[in-house]
Design goal:
By secondary structure, this protein is of the alpha+beta class. Helix 2 (100-113) packs antiparallel against helix 3 (157-170). Helix content is 29%, strand content 23%.
Length: 179
């Protein structure tokens, strides 16, 4: 009986895995409704629903000076919420909307920067009195936040370029003012 125990455990672990992989019991055919054709129709699989719902939030913090302090959030439907703090032209909450083309441009910029492969933070204090940016991206089921202190010289240029691309695509200059 001692030798049967590992085999029993292995069987108990593998059966659920096989069922999830499609090796489970065959599924019964769907019942036809009254008046439906008696001939079976071949099974068709609808294409997987695209899970590219995009949400982007960029927050910029203060520095020792007049760096603009704000948060801008782009929602999946293209709604943009700008929340202006200090050293911005438009303080408080403001709304706008991005076109599908601009949302696509944001997706391309995120892919180009390799955002989901970046470290979670670049916050070493190699220089002082610099501002920070926190960028959060949700794309489908993936979510990532990267904290970036501009005094950390190890941060990849692609991260700074992506943060700037968010500002450019969303056109935060209309609320910040030209600096």
């Amino acid at each position: 009986m001692r030798n049967a125990t590992p085999l029993l455990l292995a069987a108990l672990l593998l059966v659920p895995l096989a069922a999830r992989a499609g090796g489970g019991a065959p599924k019964s055919a769907p019942k036809s409704s009254p008046g439906a054709s008696a001939s079976p129709k071949p099974a068709t699989h609808a294409p997987a629903k695209r899970t590219s719902r995009l949400m982007v939030r960029l927050s910029r913090t203060a520095c020792f000076g007049t760096c603009p302090v704000y948060t801008v959030t782009v929602h999946p439907d293209g709604t943009v919420i700008f929340e202006g703090g200090r050293f911005v032209k438009a303080k408080g909450r403001h709304r706008a909307h991005l076109s599908r083309a601009k949302l696509a441009a944001l997706r391309r910029a995120i892919r180009h920067a390799g955002f989901f492969a970046l470290h979670d933070d670049y916050t070493r204090r190699m220089r002082t009195d610099a501002p920070s940016a926190t960028l959060t991206v949700r794309l489908g089921h993936r979510r990532k936040t990267v904290d970036h202190y501009y005094g950390d010289t190890t941060a990849p240029k692609a991260l700074t370029a992506l943060e700037d691309a968010v500002d450019r695509i969303v056109d935060t200059a209309r609320w910040i003012g030209h600096r």
